[in-house]
């Protein structure tokens, strides 16, 4: 472990700073958009811009990395991400902010691809699991600290935007100073969507719905809380609880999914997530159209935080549950290719999640946020119950649940020690 950290300190240091900025940026824009009185549809379109840029970059940037190299791509897109947040500070306009979010998503996926391909180059079969654990830990802690930075200054001021730009720019320093030679880029393999659906209808449908759920949860969570008249501290605390709870619940859920019919665990998690959505809506005892929690800390608000924490614990592990379940029906050598295909399906859902959620919020009020989440959880649950009647469960001992960051690319999925990647040249020496 010590050698891993010593050899990868530059990567993890830059990535950690990047995750702090990433966790801060999206939530800052969500709160500011409510203050600026953007309507829900404009906010949803803006947040979808990030996932459209992310999805586009995931398909374009690998070719660019192969042409110009890892370090140049990292430097270029870190600079673009730093520039895009300053655009938000100067031009407070929904259309311009949507374009800015597209640039941010396009830039960050480029950085993630560089980071993950570099880690894969350094990993061996003996260290791959350790690297993935560190990667997951750094992601979780960085995002959590980023949400707490909402308390740094008022979202109406320019200082938070400057801080994000500084963080993104400083993330360049460690990786540009590293002495280790950049790796050769590996081409990403994919299994087409039709083939994935034939292999696992439940895994495919669940992953698409999970994209709809996660993109809305992480992009509009701050918008929801701000519209509910939460204080900045309460908003940051709520987002912190969501992030940490989602990480903590991954391990026990994964443990039980590896020892039982994984479909049961998926259905259990998604139906309980729907239940906690309902409890969150009615925790204040207010009507569906107009639920504003009391400004003071009371039992209703405490219960609301508990319900949201439990919801996140059930909902966030669905991403890796879906991946593990699909791997139950394919040979080990296709794990990474299947992961790439599942990322495409997740991305298709994520592109439309915030926009659709904003339409529901525009129709039903602020609590349309939870109505959107609840609806797609019910779709997963009901479809899962249907599929259980159509297919017997097949155990694949080579397939395991591995906790993964929600922003991981198909290259990062190779860090899963269960993918059976070849031992690197450094391991053979």
CATH class: Mainly Alpha
Number of strand elements: 0
What's the architecture in CATH terms?
Up-down Bundle
Work out the helix count.
Answer: 18
> Helicity range of the residues?
over 70%
Distance between the ends = 19 Å
Under CATH, the topology can be stated as Growth Hormone, Chain: A
Question: What is the count of structural domains?
Answer: 1
Derived structural class: mainly alpha
Shape: globular
Annotated CATH homologous superfamily: MFS general substrate transporter like domains
Compute the gyration radius: what is it?
Answer: 21 Å
Description of the molecule:
The protein has one domain: MFS general substrate transporter like domains (Growth Hormone, Chain: A). The chain is about 75% helix and about 0% strand. It has 18 helices and no strands. It has helices at about 1-35, 40-70, 70-90, 95-120, 130-150, 160-170, 170-175, 195-200, 200-225, 230-250, 250-255, 260-280, 300-315, 320-325, 335-365, 370-390, 410-415, 425-429. Helix 1 packs antiparallel against helix 4 (about 95-120) and helix 12 packs antiparallel against helix 13 (about 300-315).
Topology:
Elements: H1 2-35, H2 40-68, H3 70-90, H4 94-122, H5 128-148, H6 159-170, H7 172-177, H8 193-199, H9 201-227, H10 232-248, H11 250-257, H12 262-282, H13 299-315, H14 318-327, H15 335-364, H16 368-388, H17 410-413, H18 425-428
Helix pairs in contact: 1-4, 1-5, 1-6, 1-9, 2-3, 2-4, 2-9, 2-15, 3-4, 3-6, 5-10, 8-9, 9-10, 9-14, 9-15, 9-16, 10-13, 12-13, 12-14, 12-16, 14-15, 15-16
